[in-house]
Each structure stands twice: as C-alpha cells, then as structure tokens.
Amino acid sequence: MATTAPLRTICVQPTLASYRVPVYRELAARPSIDLRLWYGNHSTLRNAEPEGFAAELKPLKAWRLRGQEALWHAAQLEAAGCNDVDVLILSWGARYLSLGPALRRAKRRGLPVVLWGHGYSKNDSGLRRWMRDRIARLATVLLFYDERTAAAAIQSGWPADRVFVAPNAIDQTPILAQRDAWLADSEALSRFRREQDLIDRRLLLYVSRFTPENRLELLVDAVDRLRHQQPETLAVMIGGGEEQQRIVQLVQRRKLESFFRFLGPIYDEAKLAPWFLSAEAFVYPAAIGLSLLHAFGYGLPVVTDDNVQGQNPEIIAFQPNTDAPDPNGLAYRAGDAADFATTLDRLLNDATLQNRLASGARRTIEQRYNVPRMVDGMAAAIEACRR
C-alpha cells in the first residue's frame, strides 16, 4: 500500500520564543510533516535554543516608519523561492513589508501558504483591516488563534475548509509536575507559607512583565479599596519591566506597602509553584495573554477586565460567565477600579465560587488549551494544503 510522503514545511517566524519550543517539537514529531523553522532576531524577545526540530536563524530588519514598526524578513522571500518545500507558514501581519512580495512569489510558483496570526489588531482601523484582508487574499489557508476570529473570517466569505484554529497554548508539563510535587508534600507547602508570612493572608497573584497596557495602577487602586473589607489582602507581584518603578512608587505614595510584595522576575517553575498554590486569585487588570493559561494550569481563577477587544488572543479561554459550564474566572468593568475591588471581594468571600472556578480552570487546560490540541490545528492547516 502506498504511503503519503511527509509535507516539507518551512515555518518563518520573527523569533524563537521559549514557550514555542514545545509546539515546534510536537509539530516536527508528526509523521505527516517534515518541519524546518526559520526564525528572526526581533529585539522584543530573546531567542531560545531549538530542541527536537530543525531550525535556522535568519536575520530580520526592523525600523520605525511613520511612527509604526516596519519589518523586513528576507527569509519570507527566500522560503517562497525554495524548490525543496511543499508548504510555507508565514506570520500574518501588515507590518511585514516583505510579506506581500513573498506571497506573490509563492502564488506564481503554485506554492501553498498558511498565514498564521491573530487576524485582528487591538488598535484596529479601516486601513489596517483593508491591508490585512488584501494580504490574506494571497494565502491558501488562514490559521487563527481562536474560534471567534476564525468564524468571522468564514462569515466574511472565506471557505470553511480553508480556515483553521490552533488555540494558543503553553507547555503545561512543567506546571503540572510542580503542582503535583508541591501538593504531594503538604508540609513543604505549609513551611513555605510560614516562612513567607502568608498565614491568614488573602493572596492575590500577578506574574508577568510590568507594562503600560497591563494597567497595574488599577490593581493598586482596587487593593486600596479592598483593604477595608479584606484587611488581610496581600498582592504579590512577580516580574519586572518598564512600569515597575512607577507602580512601586505609587504603592508607597498610597502607603500600601503592607498590602503589596514585589519579588522581581522569577522563571524557575519550582519557585513559582508555591506562590500559585498559595493564591486565591490571579489578578491581571488588562491585556492578559499566555499568563491566563499559566494560572489555569494551577487551577487558579483569573480576574481581568471585560474589554475582550483589548485582550490578547488567549482571552478566548476565559469563561467569566458563572452560569455557564466550567467558568474559570471573573470579569470586572474595564477601567473601573471600584468594580475591580468589588469583584475581588465577591471572590474572596465565596469559597464555593472559588472552588468551582478552580475546577473550571483545570478543565480548560485539560480539554482544550494545551500543546497537542494547538498542534492538531496547525497540522490540519498544513494538511489542507495537500488537497
């Protein structure tokens, strides 16, 4: 019986992020796909070491053009001209000036292209949508991070068999391993809580970079309000970044030092785990992304704002409707610190709600938002190019 040859696939990306290594490794392990990754050196993210897949660094140029970032990745054009490739995966974004020429070259050669990206912009406009749609028309297949945007593409006229979803995910293996290890050693976890003076504290946890879009000043304001109803509140902030000094100074001006603890960046999952397991909620004022899935891996309910358009694609995993199956968090009115405080107070006062949200968070990860499911979507998009 004849066997189908693996599809020789080149995936061109601006960086090789550490959280993507397990994704590419899983994709390369699929028998129907022969994967090569070409990645750039975008300054926003340090490249990780490839492991378990073929990868090559291809320099990328970035500059400011009329106040906006513009990118030229010659690897996109190079890949479109290769003779030993069956399918290309290219990043979908209007800021890539090299993308249009690469797509046109691939189209002339009859080379199928999967465009992989958000499919929307947080700061969308008519011009942005027009540019994005014009680029999309040159592709063979569209690959989105979430079902909502994929459905919108189909409604706009894209054939359903050319639209795919790869739900964004992180590797939950180290998270679940540390979660199980700490929970199996209750004395070690109790000792950690005593040493960190967490006994009888109501711990709210933030783990991410300190950036303007995350609106951390709203968390400071919410805790200032919440402390009157919940005097044992403690917001633990793990991470660093451009906004850290400003937020620390804001806490000091408000005289809230006893309600906040700043730990700086921590990357070791074994050191992060006891903080996640000691918290009652993961708080992220705005623009949450992969941190949502990190918290869910520990079964930690998330509280963020209700401005879905301003969030990152991972927000599709967030289910704040407590009347729906498997709720996993609560949403407050965007920009409203008083409502943020009220929402946190509601959660801290209701142990039954906490447990229900925690169970929903774990099921979210187990059933949908994990690396194998993400790679299933990517593999299906690649296979569609065989037809």
From TrEMBL:
PANTHER family reported for this sequence: SULFOQUINOVOSYL TRANSFERASE SQD2
This protein's encoding gene: pimB_1
Keyword field contains Ubl conjugation: no
Alphabetical list of Pfam families matching this protein: Glycos_transf_1
Superkingdom field: Bacteria
Keyword Transferase among UniProt keywords: yes
Listed GO MF terms: phosphatidylinositol alpha-mannosyltransferase activity
EC number(s) recorded for this UniProt protein: 2.4.1.345
Keywords: Glycosyltransferase, Transferase
Protein name: GDP-mannose-dependent alpha-(1-6)-phosphatidylinositol monomannoside mannosyltransferase
Domain Glycosyl transferase family: 200-363
Organism in which the protein naturally occurs: Botrimarina hoheduenensis
